[in-house]
Please model this.
Amino acid sequence: MTKQSSAEGTSLDSDLETFRDDLRKASELVFRLYGGLDRARVTPAKSRMEIASLFDEPFPEEPQPMKAILREVENNIFANSTLYLTPRFFGYINAGGNQAAVLGELLASSSDRASASS
Model:
């Protein structure tokens, strides 16, 4: 992965081919989440303390490979989230994670550089 440098240090941006591959992998992760909604638990099986312990580690000092980040998102975040977006959730919170919202967030975050740089 080629990283671009800036006056502030190492950039989080990569070359376009790596970015395309990372987008594909992230999209596949979201697709797996949506593909399992009909059989997924609405609430996490782990306790709040068990979930908190998954993140009880120091922040990394060096950039982490995207593959490892996506694996952590799938195993620690998606697997332990309250799935408001499942069709079996009849709660009080409107799901913002519908497919149109996911695509809208992707498009908005790709063009709103001011919010990402502050």
